[in-house]
Structures are given as C-alpha cells and as structure tokens.
Amino acid sequence: MKSRISMIVAGLLVAGMVMAQQAEIDRYNVEWDTPSENSAGSMPLGNGELGANLWVEKNGDLLFYLSRTDAISEANRLMKMGRVRVSLSPNPFREGLPFSQQLVLKDGAIYVTAGKDGEAVKFSFYMDPDQETAYLQMKGEVPYQVKVTAESWRKEPHVITKGEAPSAWLNEMPSWVHIEESADVFQPEGKDIVWYHQNESSVYDLIIKHQKKEAVAANFPDPVRNRIWGVDMSSKGLEKVNDSTFQSPKGIRQCELKLVTHSAQSASVAEWKKEVNRQARKTSAEKALQASRNWWTDFWKQSYIYVDIPEDPDFAYRLTQSYILQRYMLAGSGRGNFPVKFNGSIFTTDPKFTRASADYSPDYRNWGNDFWWQNTRLPYYAMLANGDFDQMQALFDFYLSRMSAFRTLAAKYYQAKGAFIPETVTVFGTYANGDYGWEREGHSPNEVLNIYIRHIWVQGLELSKLMLDYASYSGDEAFLREKALPAIKEFILYFDSRFRNGQGKIHITPTQSVETYWYGVENDMPSVAGLHYVLGALEKLPSHLLPEPDRQYYLQLKKDLPGLPQKRIAQGDVFLPAEVFLELRTNVENPELYAVFPFGLANFSNELCQTGIRTFRYRNFDSWYGWGQDGQEAAILGLVDEAAEMLRKKVGNTNPNHRFLAMWGPNYDWVPDQDHGSNLMLTLQNMVLQSYDKAYLLPCWPENWNVSFKLYTSRETQIEGQYKEGRLTFTRQGDMEVVEANKR
What we know:
alpha+beta; 15-stranded antiparallel beta sheet
C-alpha cells in the first residue's frame, strides 16, 4: 500500500510540474511597446533551417531578413537571402499610437499589433517547423493600402574586397586574388515574386590549387559549386506589379504572404523551381501555425530550468529568460544542413550595428563561414542536458561526412594513420587560405602558417566525447555502433600512429595548448585530458557495442598515456597547460582547466576536485564571457559563489546596440555570440545537474535560490524536480542512480 501511495504522489508531482511549466513559459515572452529604429531592433525567428529577423519602423514599414544555414555564396560566405519590406498606409506605427510586438514562445510566432481601437492592424509571422516556409498574415479593422517589396543589395556581381576578406576568412588576401559573387536573379514572369542566387563558381578551385591538393581533390567535397538558393513569395490579397513588388489594388483588410525557400546543389534553375513548387503544395498557413504551436509546445515541455530568487526576483527573471531565449536561438538554427555558426548563427543583422567600421552589406560577419572547433562545439554541449538531440545531428553529419578529407589531411600533412580534424575547417574539409597562409615561399605544401591553430589536435577527441555522451543520453546505440565508434577509432589511431616516442609511450609533440601556448609545448593538457576521457569512456562500453580486440587495444593505449600535466606549488597540486611549455601567452584561454571542462576528469565529486579548485583560483585569465569557460568550470568544481557571480555577469553581457536580449556579444566574435549564450546555459545546467558515475542534483546551488527543472542525463535518464525553501523533490525516468548533492 505504501508503494502505491508513493507512486501516486510521484505521479501527481510530475503532473503538477508539467502544468506549472506550461503556464510558466508565457512569463518569458518578449514584448516591445514601441517600434524599432533599424535591424538592430529586430526579433529573431527560426524553424531550425530557415531564419528571420523582423522589426517595425516608425515610418510605417515592417521588415524582415530571411536566412538559411545553407545559403552559401561562391566565396563560401553565409548570406542573407534578402529583405522583405511591408509598407502600410495610413501608417499605424507612427508615434503616439498603441503598439505591441510580441514573441510568443509556445507558438514560435511573432505578433505585431498597432493602431488605435477600431483602426488596429495585426500581423502574425511564423514558420512551418517541418517545411522551408514562412508566413506573414495581416488583418486590419479598417482597410489599409499595402505594398510589399522584395529587396536585394546583390543587384550586380560583387568582388570581395580586402576589407570584406574576414567574412570569407581570406585574411591578408593578396592583390592577385579575385573572388566574385554573382548577382541575384529576379524572375519577371508568373504571379509570384521569385528571386534566387546561383553560384556560378566556387572558391574551392582557388583553395585546392593554392594548397596543392589537386591529386587528392576527390577526397574533399565541394558543396558550393552550382548551389542555388532563394525564395518564392506568393500572396493572397495582393497583385504583382513588377518582378519585386506586390501591391493592393485598393485598401484591404487582410492579406497573406507565403515565402517558400529552398537551397540545393547541382540543380538547374528549373529543378530548383520544381522543388519549390512541390514544397509550396505541402503546407498552408493554418496547418503551419498549428504545426508550429505543436512543435514549440512540445519543445518547451522537453526540458526547462526556472529560477526563483526571493530576495532578487528581477535577476532571477532575467536569468531564466536568458536561458530560455538562448535555447530558443539554438532551436531556431540547429536543425539545418550545417552546424550552428558561433559568430551570429543565421540571426546576424546589418554589421555596422555590431562594429561601426564594418559598413558592409548584411552578408558580412567576422570570422567567416568556417567552422572553428573551439567555438562551434560549445552550443552542442548545452544541448545534451536539454535533450535537444535532434539539433546535434547537423554537427555530427558535418564532420563525419568529411572523414575522407580528414584521413587525407592526417596522411598528407603528418604521415599519420587515422583521421585528423583541423581546428578551423571550411565546408570543403580544408583549411581556409587565411589560415593555410598566402605567402608560401620557403614553406612546404604541408605546412600550415597560422601559428594560432596549426598544432591543435584535440578536435577529434572532443567530437568523440560529444558523440559518446549523445549516445548515452539519447540511447541511440545504432548511431554509436555504425557512425561514432568507427570515427572515434580513427581519431585515436591518429595519436597512436603519430605520437609514439622511443620508449613506445604517447608523447605529444609538436603541439600547442589551444591558442594560448605555442612554444616548447609537449603533452598539452587538452589532448592528454581528451585521450584519458575518451579511452576511459570506451572501456566502460558493453561488449555488444565494443568488440573485445578493440577493448584490449584501448586498454593498452591508455596505459601508454602520459599523466595529466600538473605540479606542486606551496598551496598544493595544480594542473598545467602542458607537461612542458614556455610561459609565453598568446591568447586568454586557460587550457590547464580542460581537465575540468570539457572532460570532467576533475569535478566536485572526485579526488581531483581540490587540484581543480586550486588551479581555478590561480588561473591566468578571467574568461567568463564569449567562449571563456569559467562559469561551467566553477559549477563543475562546486564553487557556488563564483558560479552564481558569473551568471550575473553573463546575463549583463547583452549587446547595447541590439534590442533583443539574446543578442550577446560581439565579445571575441560577432553578434549574436552563440558561445556566450551557450556557456551561460552550461553554467546554469551544471549548477543544477552533473552526470558522472551517478547523476548529482544541485551540486553547486545557492541555498537561498529556488529552482524547478527538467533535464537529461546519462543512461537515457530524465530528472524532473523542484528545490524550494531548502527542500528538494524530484522524479526520475531511467536507471541512472541519482544523488542529492546539496546534502553532501
């Protein structure tokens, strides 16, 4: 009888939590009561592949940029697809009239209402979660003259200038380099407004030739050449007056825009249009809105963290909203054909609002379209605890589909077996020429000249950790067996075949400790910690996943590893950036703390905790913003006050030029800075839950803070709970043992 009562109580608790969080999410909608000045005052919206930034100006215009994760130009730049301007007369947005622009999170929609009672107009903007389509609907209480214009700034072919080179990561581009992007094409015929960009060339040719890879070019894909991407915009209630404009024949009370987007490679324009037409038939405004509401409602139910601080409710609200909006930003860009871009994602705005000197087109972003591993990885660590496993596929697909390139780089550059992922990777699987180096006289074709990144090896190990953790959290054994483990074996083989010394031990040199220590480095902490973590995790896999010969191979290799670099100081042991290194710092990372994050070898629950804490206390740099990992490191080590303080700093780091809260940065990169927002999430997640041999609840939680949460952990386990006024209650689904760490 007692067991039955306990089950009933647990069930009621879960039901109560679910109902509470459904009501709770509405508290964190974003609402503005005045129009914006420009795109810096835009709201982002995305369905995982397709993105938009929408804003309203006082002159009577509603505008939005459209973007995709795969709208890539000839220069390998991630482009905006265009801008749409909706102009109303009479102007309902003029100063003095009521106005509301609201992002409703559980709808995945933006609603704009303006004008006095009896003359108001309402816009609804949303996207189909499963199609590449957006909708804008207008309903007015009185007739309005409506004009819709599709705007492109790419009316003529464009040659990349030296000032724009960072947006294609062609830094220090010599004068002989000529890279041209074609003009957009507007289709004059038909009832719809159709425009597209067709790549007539590819920077791939320049890269392959300059890096002397012609003989192995077949191992490097080219997703740029012949790519076509664009928009088919149809209308209900408006008439096409030219190839870029719809207009109402008279004042109207309602109209609708349907924007079907598509990006495809090696397709003729006719084939591209055929696919667009096929997609257009698959959905409607009503179906799309309901699908959006269903998808986002389920998404917010999937996981959550709501913080309540009785003595500081304003900060608690802003912290929770920051967490929610960063998760929203990742969901809006995380289900596309390429990984989330750390430097702005698909939600960049006009670059001059991020950096005044960058007075270029909306296609500009600093750091280009390459994937810098140290930056790209951070959003994906945050997805694990949220259970956002579908969003992790783009990362895995991108790197695993380029294994032939990475095997070639290992063999060609380093005469090694296995596979090596460069720190910076183009969509082709190569270095960008800005990293490879332009001036090659006196240098071997296999030499990478960018000293910041040329000897960083940890990328494959971190990808291995993410894949192993994903499989454990999600239970996706098929992925682990068929994709992850074969790739992990190749990443391990790279170290085994390249870094054996005369005694048969692993001795990693030449190397560097990420971007901060370049000189005289041996056995860098990131690589050593990564090898210890990955080999330890492989050892624990069951026999039906890991064949015994592989297990024995990994066990032997683990015996041949160097220990974690550390030394004894007066206060005790501390971790080091490497076993051997020169004290000459060239960036502001703390690589000695990679034993804490991302690899978790030192954490609050084990014997290395004090070494980790001591190292944290004596770290060289405060790195709480941008890609700096201090917040989650403090949380992992159980440093309650430090982690809480860093959350306060992180929340306050939103860009002052931008209106939307989650437009972080630029910090080291660009706006919105996806690393900063993701590190905020990771800090809060690790304060609530950490997973090692057991799941630890509230390992780094202030006693006077309340919280309700639902998070994921290893062994396909979900934990939903509440901590209020010093009392923790929770339920568990899955077989991971749970420990109330706040009672330790």
